Structures are given as structure tokens and as C-alpha cells.
Amino acid sequence: xxxxxxxxxxxxxxxxxxxxxxxxxxxxxxxxxxxxxxxxxxxxxxxxxxxxxxxxxxxxxxxxxxxxxxxxxxxxxxxxxxxxxxxxxxxxxxxxxxxxxxxxxxxxxxxxxxxxxxxxxxxxxxxxxxxxxxxxxxxxxxxxxxxxxxxxxxxxxxxxxxxxxxxxxxxxxxxxxxxxxxxxxxxxxxxxxxxxxxxxxxxxxxxxxxxxxxxxxxxxxxxxxxxxxxxxxxxxxxxxxxxxxxxxx
Length: 249
Description:
2 domains, 8 strands
């Protein structure tokens, strides 16, 4: 049987709409990844610059935050006031740069600025020694801390929707939960920031300050190229289909 004349072959409107939507989605995701690439490069450059930035006093930085200024990832210096809080602390599960499992102690530091009387100090990494339970010992209260002010983020998607059996046993899996726990246990008021310690004086035993890592995955360029490649392949397949349908017999 000979193929139908070109004039009788119907144009695939439904398929064309589906292809157009898929193409727009792929291109949109590619553009989004390009924007993410620029954001990630700026973030990494900012973290690298923090290594040589002079620390700023915590009080003025929190005052700027109260005025709506973005102070996330600012290098600060904190002198904890005398008078320890009750034995409150939170341990977050952590993995160091070598892949070893351990804990990050979050301790309260007494302050008096901006209507707050405490701020959480992320002390660094403490090796677990293979123990799945957090240490029972409480590290000495922080005194003088130089570190990076970081917004206490909430749970990730996995933490929010996953059923992690150890959540209650080890306290909290994210810094925002740690800040809430410190306020509950001490009766204090804290900003939604923690100071990720780079240096403490005196240094707490058994804890290695880790600061902010620059080992952050930056694969957005490859993701963008993948999405743009899929968009191009989709157009090529669609064009070949049209050519086969409407080419002269």
C-alpha cells in the first residue's frame, strides 16, 4: 500500500503540544541550573574570603540583622558572659572530611545584645569512636569564640519526611532544632543563628573546630548542559518524526 498523500496526512497537534511543554521544561531547568551555578560560585568565593576576613563583634552584626540586612556567613567574635546556663547542650550527628562518623556539640553562650541572652555555638567535630549514642559528657562552656555566623537552617527534605528512629535519642538533626532545644532547656532567647567555631579560647578538649567547609559540590554546569542536551535531542527527534511523516513518497 502506498503512503497517503502529504495533503491527507494530519499534523500531530497533540504531540507537538507535549513536545513543546517538555522542551520548555528542559530549557527552564537548564537556565535554573545556570543561575544556581552563579549563586554557588559566589557562595564558594564568599566562604574562601571569610578565611582572611577580620572578625566583627557579634552585637553590631545582630543589630544589622534586626534591620533586615543579610548577615548570614559573617565572621564574628563572641565573648560569652560569665554565668553558665544549666547543663544544656545538643549533639548533631556529623561526618568529618575523612568520612568518619561523630558528633557536633551545640552549646549555649550567654550574651546580652539585641534582646537575646544566648546564642548557640557549633563547637566542631567530636569523634564518636564507633558509638551510635551521643557522648554523655558535657563540654566546658564556651568563653571566647571566633567563627562564622550561620543561619540555623531547618530540616532537609529527607529529615522532614523521613522516619529517623534516632531523632529522639540523639536530640536533633538540624541547627534550627538545636537552637529551639537550647532555648527550651535554658529558658533563654536566641536568634536563629549559630556561630560555627573556628577558634576557641580555651579550646574544648576532644573537639576539633571545623568552621565552614569549601568542599561543597558544584555540579550545576554539568546539570545545565544535560538539560540543554535533552532539549536539543527532543527537538531533533521531533523534527525527524515530522520529516518522515511529510517527506514526499
